[in-house]
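Q: How do we represent a protein-ligand complex in a form that can be generated token by token?
A: Start from the inputs.
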Amino acid sequence: MIDLRSDTVTRPTPEMLKFMFSAKVGDDVYKEDTSINELQKKAAAIFGKEEGLFCPSGTMTNQCAIKAHTQPGDEVICDVSAHIFNYEGGGMAFNSGVQAKLLNGDRGRFTSKQIEAVIHPPADWLPHTSLVCIENTSNRGGGSYYRINEVKDIAGVCKTNKLALHLDGARIFNAIAETGDKPQEYGQYCDSISVCFSKGLGAPVGSVILGSKEFISKARRVRKLLGGGMRQGGYLAAAAIYALDHHIERLKDDHRRAKYLGKILQTKNFVTDMLPVDTNIIIFSLTDDITAEQFVQKLKNENILISATGKQTVRMVTHLDFTDNMLEKVENAFKCL
Ligand SMILES: *Cc1c(COP(=O)(O)O)cnc(C)c1O
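Then emit the structure tokens for the protein with pyridoxal-5'-phosphate bound:
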């Protein structure tokens, strides 16, 4: 099977597994897990943040951040396509008692001007605007990314208006691979950053949240009450350490393969609209004579898995376990459709 449904489907490589087996561990609720401590320190240093917190998922890192930055009744500014709004089970309402102010960005990205236009002035009857969440790269935006200057502008508006800025950087290393921007700059502009290891970086489990010492101590408390306090989780942290050391440079290969697939697909008569392929995500619409479900099934018959994301739209995501050899097979399968 060639699995292009998501970049979460990767399995640990033999080298990663070997590294995981040799991890030094302890009880992380007592802060005694050597590998988790090392990972948190390492990730914080990459982004120039004081501290990090290892969590089982990117949903948990985002939810911990939202809870740590807000009070119930607050308003959180995010894009209409944001993961925190669409794919976290209504978590911001459930866990933090906050509501979203949705912006219509350009493929998941909005501007500092759009933020300025929706910040509430102080008034008893208005929700208190306290947090802005940006997503980079944008998942529903098809892997689109911000340039660091745009993030700088957003951070400026947040600072002026005393809003916290959270970066859902589930795929931040995909953005960095494409732009060459410095992780430390993200650290400088964003109050908190969530980074996933189980996407393009190819670890089996885990995300980290980064921020100031004070912020992480709040987030740590929230993680525990959400049930995310792990004990000898260092075996998983080791996979993330391995990924940071070995799987960042190769993200460019995923982008190259995705862009190549995008080019081929553009020549096919079953494809109508396609979002620009900026990183590792390909999203396109199909002509009326075939539904997304039928298209997915047709490829499944060729041992290729992709996702239907709407009635006429499908998504493919390249990743660590998708090779050039598989790329050729997918190209050939498209020839026969
Ligand atoms: C995958 C993803 C997350 C986290 O998802 P989990 O499955 O909970 O790890 C968060 N934000 C974005 C944009 C994502 O794509």
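Residues 57-59, 62, 83, 135, 139, 168, 170, 196, 198-199, 207 surround pyridoxal-5'-phosphate (CB under 6 Å). The chain has a mean pLDDT of 97.
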